[in-house]
Automatic annotation (TrEMBL):
Plays a critical role in recombination and DNA repair. Helps process Holliday junction intermediates to mature products by catalyzing branch migration. Has replication fork regression activity, unwinds stalled or blocked replication forks to make a HJ that can be resolved. Has a DNA unwinding activity characteristic of a DNA helicase with 3'-5' polarity. It holds the Pfam family RecG_dom3_C. It catalyses: Couples ATP hydrolysis with the unwinding of duplex DNA by translocating in the 3'-5' direction; ATP + H2O = ADP + phosphate + H(+). This is ATP-dependent DNA helicase RecG. InterPro entries: ATP-dep_DNA_helicase_RecG (IPR004609), DEAD/DEAH_box_helicase_dom (IPR011545), Helicase_ATP-bd (IPR014001), Helicase_C-like (IPR001650), NA-bd_OB-fold (IPR012340), P-loop_NTPase (IPR027417), RecG/Mfd (IPR047112), RecG_dom3_C (IPR045562).
Length: 699
């Protein structure tokens, strides 16, 4: 008899080939089958009297087989056709199947059957073509009809019917052995079903009410399991010996004085939160979030300077070369006239840049500076993670646009120091409860204000035929001395997708449409020096119109750019559109974002509509989450939410909160999960989070 942790291959009817097909869907053990939840359900529990079945409707009927026959094969050469008729006293309906010769023997006249399918008119008869069916034997409940039926996402080579049978058989053989992983008091507090009832009812619900209760319980379980590693990680950090930065208030104030603007209250508050973390011996793990353009970089830079005044190095990791370059310029500009400490030989902080396209010599020099400590602040891409990068005394890490990095990448940088402080920045603000789930191990600071004196951004969606209007508008603005971005989803034209692409459009703009204007082009794969040259020209106003791909999504900061035209806007995600729009409206002038779009799908229409309606990043993020669901929203590279199979953090925030509180209590009681009562919980945690063992056992 197989047990829960047996490979599926032990099941009857599952050979190596089928086991492989299941494996590709992530189903390897019996247990995985039980946790392979239906994608949706169909209520086939209500039977329609056959006499009142409407043509074209999809219905469940129940009746007696009164005839069966194979239709003559010559009608459809070589195709086996099998037909039965079923009556229930109100009428008669036919059902046909093609090329399923085993059915001839399966049905017998006199059988009670249930059929589920679409009723069509065929030669004056009402007929279902290949309906789902079930012969009612005794009182046993059907799997495929006559009930609320689960519909699964199918592994290759499986039909709904076969998968249902498989899951049902595993449920039946394992149900008595299922171990409860939620502590009893937790279940009692929230009136949650036990595990056996939950798994039974999530797959084969007795009724809608039980299905909902099963769903609640399993969603709670998922939240609960997911919170534990986060909470443990956070607690573990409390015990670690981090760096105590003696950041002087006077030093910070002298930096403020050197800035060309006053910080917003919100920026000041966040900076205080960060600095107070830095002063404490506990290693900082703080998320700094705020809408694009709210001024996160400045705050992070001030924190970095704080670290430098205490004799430590700081590292900024950013996702693109353009952004690295721009941060350097920005920082150097802010630092003009700034002195770090009287006693240092080198009074100005020294900035180093590290990206993968440095030539060997530049790279060698920078690496040497990082190693001997002459470089105070390093700004770089993921090149910072390379083995050859050794810091003299790394104290503070800033990770910008964290969603662009994978979890493992984010975890690598801190290892280049000894429990350094980490500040993680994101411009995709999310509702607070949700950030608890995703970043439950982080502390949170939010910049809620925009700097004063920013021009408004107007957004408008144009149909494809109206494209010329957008170009005319660009021309007008350039005439007034402003600059414009023209964004395309692709660099090169592709044969498959008939989309306009940056390169060819650049040519068209340069040679025809904007022949009299100065047009530039940037895209991600471009050589670094060319990219830089063009960006510099744009910043200096020597390029009027910049044609670009989504490289512009992060960081570019040119206050004089007031128009952005996004072509094929339906192809971009909502948050991505918002990030790009954040490139304009940075100066005092009113700005305009024009979408040229042909949204065909409902989702695309919803995105465009939401985008035009608001410029508030929090609202945009919430809409985006709703449209895409958390899994896709955070992307596969993000841990956590993408792995949630059943729980929906947006719709079930109350459950999430409750699960988090209960997880907290449990960890306080049993931090090592050593209590035998928590054995199953621990087993499940190890199973789902292979890296989890480290937290508990080692730390
Ligand atoms: P984010 O990284 O949050 O998108 P940045 O830090 O790049 O935003 O800031 C956007 C622009 O606003 C930069 O040019 C920055 O110098 C400027 N800025 C930041 N804070 C302020 C402020 N308090 N007042 C005026 N301008 C500011
Ligand atoms: Mg930024």
């Amino acid at each position: 008899m197989p047990i829960l942790s047996s490979p599926v291959q032990y099941l009857k009817g599952i050979g190596p080939k089928r086991a492989q097909d299941l494996g590709r869907t992530g189903i390897n053990l019996l247990e995985d089958l039980l946790y392979y939840f239906p994608r949706r359900y169909e209520d086939r529990s209500q039977f329609k009297p056959i006499g009142s079945v409407d043509i074209g409707s999809t219905v469940t009927v129940k009746g007696e087989v009164i005839s069966k026959k194979g239709r003559p094969a010559y009608l459809r050469r070589g195709i086996d056709i099998f037909e039965i008729s079923v009556a229930d006293g109100t009428g008669r309906i036919f059902a046909v199947w093609f090329n399923q010769p085993f059915l001839h023997k399966y049905f017998n006249v006199g059988d009670q059957v249930i059929l589920y399918g679409k009723a069509d008119l065929y030669r004056d008869k009402i007929q279902m073509s290949s309906p789902d069916f079930e012969i009612i034997e005794d009182k046993e409940a059907g799997l495929d009809v006559g009930r609320i039926v689960p519909i699964y996402r199918l592994p290759q080579g499986f039909s709904q019917r076969v998968l249902r049978k498989l899951i049902k058989s595993v449920l039946e053989s394992q149900i008595t052995r299922l171990q409860e992983l939620l502590p009893y008091d937790v279940r009692a507090r929230h009136s949650l079903l036990n595990i056996a009832q939950s798994l039974l009812n999530i797959h084969f619900p007795q009724n809608e009410k039980m299905r909902l209760r099963a769903y609640q319980r399993l969603a709670f379980e998922e939240f609960f399991l997911y919170q534990i590693p986060l909470i443990l990680r956070k607690l573990k950090r409390r015990d670690k010996a981090g760096i105590v930065f003696d950041v002087k208030e006077s030093a910070l104030e002298s930096f403020f004085g050197k800035l060309p603007f006053a910080l917003t209250d919100s920026q000041k508050k966040c900076l205080q939160e960060i600095v107070s973390d830095m002063r404490s011996p506990r290693p900082m793990q703080r998320l700094l979030q705020g809408d694009v353009g709210c001024g996160k970089t400045v705050v992070a830079l001030l924190a970095a300077l704080g670290a430098v005044t205490c004799g430590w190095q700081a590292a900024f990791m950013v996702p693109t070369e353009i952004l690295a370059q721009q941060h350097v310029e920005k920082i150097c500009q802010l630092l003009t006239g700034l002195q770090i400490a009287e006693h240092r030989e080198q009074k100005k902080p020294k900035i180093g840049v590290l990206t993968s396209s440095l030539d060997d010599e530049e790279k060698k020099a920078t690496l040497a500076g990082i190693k001997n400590g002459s470089v105070d602040i390093v700004i770089g891409t993921h090149a910072l993670l390379e083995e050859g990068v050794v810091f003299h005394k790394l104290g503070l890490i800033v990770i910008d646009e964290q969603h662009k990095f994978g979890v493992s990448q984010r975890a690598l940088l801190p290892r280049k120091g000894v429990n350094p402080d980490c500040l993680i920045m994101t411009a995709t603000p999310i509702p607070r409860t949700l950030s608890l789930t995703l970043y439950g191990d982080l502390d949170l600071s939010t910049i809620t204000q925009m700097p004063a004196g920013r021009g408004k951004i107007m957004t408008q969606a144009l149909a494809i035929e109206e494209r010329q209007k957008a170009y005319d508008f660009v021309r007008e603005e350039v005439k007034k001395g402003r600059q414009a971005y023209l964004i395309y989803p692709l660099v090169e034209e592709s044969e498959k997708l008939e989309l306009r692409a940056a390169k060819s459009m650049y040519k068209e703009f340069k040679d025809e449409i904007f022949k009299d204007l100065k047009v530039g082009l940037v895209y991600g794969k471009m050589k670094r020096d060319e990219q830089e040259k063009t960006m510099k020209k744009f910043r200096d106003g020597k390029v009027d119109v910049l044609v670009a791909t989504t490289v512009l999504e992060v960081g570019i900061d040119v206050a004089n750019a007031t128009v952005m035209v996004i072509e094929h806007a339906e192809r971009f995600g909502l948050s991505q559109l918002h990030q790009m729009r954040g490139r304009i409206g940075r100066g005092v002038h009113e700005s305009h974002c024009l979408l040229v779009a042909d949204p065909k799908s409902e989702d695309a229409q919803a995105r465009i509509k939401a985008f035009v309606a608001t410029t508030d990043g929090f609202k945009i993020a919430e809409e985006d989450l709703k449209i895409r669901g958390p899994g896709e929203f955070f992307g596969e590279r993000q841990h956590g939410l993408a792995d949630l199979k059943i729980a929906d953090p947006l719709a079930q925030m109350h459950l999430l909160k409750a699960a988090r509180e209960d997880a907290h209590k449990l960890i306080e009681r049993d931090p090592k999960l050593a209590d035998p009562k928590n054995a199953e919980l621990k087993r499940q945690l190890y199973r789902r989070f292979p890296e989890f063992e480290r937290f508990v056992e080692v730390g």
